Amino acid sequence: MSIPSDKDRVVIFDTTLRDGEQSPGATMTHVEKLEIAGLLDEMGVDIIEAGFPIASEGDFNAVSEIAKNATNSRICGLARAKTGDIDRCWQAIKHAEKNRIHTFIGTSPLHRAIPNLTMDEMADLIHQSVTHARNLCDNVQWSPMDATRTEWDYLCRVIEIAIKAGASTINIPDTVGYTAPVESTDLIKRLIETVPGADEVIFATHCHNDLGMATANSLAAVAGGARQIECTINGLGERAGNTALEEVVMALKVRNDIMPWSTGIDTQKIMHISRRVAAVSGFAVQFNKAIVGKNAFAHESGIHQDGMLKNAETFEIMRPSDVGLAGTSLPLGKHSGRAALRDKLEQFGFEVGDNQLKDVFVRFKELADRKKEVFDDDIFALMRSGEDAENDHLQIVSMRVICGTGGPAESTVEMEIDGKDVSVTASGDGPVDATFKAIRELHPNTARLQLYQVHAVTEGTDAQATVTVRLEEDGMIATGESANTDTVVASARAYVNALNRLILRREKSGPGTDAREISYKDVT
Ligand code: KIV
Ligand code: ZN
C-alpha cells in the first residue's frame, strides 16, 4: 500500500457564505453567517470564502468577524481586479491567522466585452491586481472567471501572468456550468503540462451545476491534477447552484479505491451543517438529494427493508452515522424529560444553554401534547422555529380561521405590535391568503412575497408543517420559518418572523447598507 502524500490531499474550499449566499433569496444575517462559519471551521474545511467585503458594509463586517473568530480554517475574501476591492478585502481578512485574497476577472470573450478591454489591457490589469494583492497578503488566489469558455491560448497566457505576479492558487471556474467530466480532466491536465510555473501552484476547480454535472466535473478535475475543490453546503448557489461539499467529500471517501484522494472533513458533521444552512438560507433540501436529503437513507419498499434488516450493505454504500445521522432514532414523547431532550439536541450538535433549553422544552411539551411521537425531524423543526423571539416587534397573540366550500375564507388575527394589542378580520382566497391579508392590515408594509413553501416534517396527518416565507422590500430580503401541526398557524408565524427580520435589518443597517450595493459580476 502506498503512503499518502500531500499530492493525495484535496483542499476543501467552501464558498457557502460567498457564492452560496449571493444567490437571490439566500441572504443570511450577520449572526447566521458567524454560526455557519464556526460550523465549517469545526468540520475541517480548509478554506472558508467568507464573503465579498466591498459588496456592502454587512459583508465587510461579517468577513472581519469571521476572520477574528477562525481557529483552523484559512479565511478568504473575494475581490474584483480593482485596487479598492483588494484593499477592502485585506482590511476584512487581515485579522485571521491564516488568510487569503481571492481576486478574479472574467476572461472569456463575452466577459472581456463588458469592461471593453483588449486582451493586452486585461493582461496588464491581471498583472497589476495580483501584484497588489500579493503585496498585502502572502496567500493569493486568482480566477479567470468563465475559464471554460475562454480561448485556450489566452487562458494559458493569463494564468502564467498571475503565477508570475505571485498567485499560489489558480482557480478554474466553470462559471455557467458548461463543461463536462472528460473536458474537465483534460483542461486541468493540459494547463498543468503547458503553463510555465504551473507545477509550483495548486489548481482549483469551481463548478456550477447548470447541467447537473458539478460534482462529476469537480472530481474529474481532481483526476486531471486539481487539488482544491470549491463547493457549498447543500450545493447552495446561484441558478442550479455550486458543487455540493457533501457530495464530493463522501464520493472521495466511499470510492477511495478509484479516487485515492483524501480531505480533512469530519463527515459526521455533515448532516447538522446541512440542516442549519437549509434553515438560515430558506433553501430547503430536496427529499432525494444525495447524502443530505430526507430520503437519502430511507428504505421504503418491502424488498429493500427486508434486505436492510438482514445486512445493511445490501442497499447502503455508506452508513447513516458516517454523515452524522443517528442510525436508529427513538422518538421522544410527552413523558420524556428535559435530560432526554438535551441529550437529543447534543446528538444533533446543538449546544443549548439552560435558558434556551427551558424555552425549547416548553415548546417541545406543547408539541408532544398535540403529537403522539416527536421524531428527530420534529426536534430540528422546533429549533428552527424558535429563533429571534426576543427581538420581535410583531407577535401573533391568537388567530381563528373559518374556511370551507361555502365562500371565501375568513381569518381573525390578534397581534401585539410594539406592546399594543390589535386585531382584525380579513377574508381571502383560502385560509393562508386571508391570514396574510389580516397581518398586512395590522402591520401595513410593502414587502413582496418572493417565496412561500410548505413541507411536512414527518409522516401522518398530525405531522408538523415547516413553512418558509421569503420577503423582499427595497432590495432587502428576509426569510422567516416556523413549524406547527397547524399549517395556517405555521404560515402566519413564518410570515411574521420574516417581517420581524426585515424590521431588525432596517434598524441595524440603516438605509441601503444591507442590500448588496454592487455585484461581483459588475467587473468594470
Ligand atoms: O463562478 C465563478 O466564476 C465565480 C468566481 C468569482 C470565482 O464564482
Ligand atoms: Zn461561482
How would you sum up this structure, described in words?
It is globular, with a radius of gyration of 25 Å. Mean pLDDT is 89; it is low at 511-515. The protein has an 8-stranded parallel barrel with strand order 1-2-3-4-5-6-7-8, surrounded by 6 helices. Helix 16 (431-442) packs parallel to helix 17 (487-509). By secondary structure, it is of the alpha/beta class. The chain folds into 4 domains: 6-281, Aldolase class I (TIM Barrel, Alpha-Beta Barrel), CATH 3.20.20.70; 297-323, no CATH class; 328-385; 394-508, Double Stranded RNA Binding Domain. It is built from 17 helices and 14 strands. The structure holds 3-methyl-2-oxobutanoic acid and zinc ion.
The helicity comes to 25-40%
Annotation, overall tally of beta strands: 14
**Could you say how many structural domains there are in total?**
4
Q: What gyration radius follows from the Cα positions, in whole Å?
A: 25 Å
Class by helix and strand content? Answer: alpha/beta
The distinct bound ligands, ions and cofactors come out as: 3-methyl-2-oxobutanoic acid, zinc ion
How many helices in DSSP terms?
Answer: 17
How many strands, which pairing sense, and closed or not: the largest β-sheet? 8 strands, parallel, barrel
Give the CATH superfamily of the largest domain.
Answer: Aldolase class I
Mean pLDDT equals 89
CATH architecture term of the largest domain:
Alpha-Beta Barrel
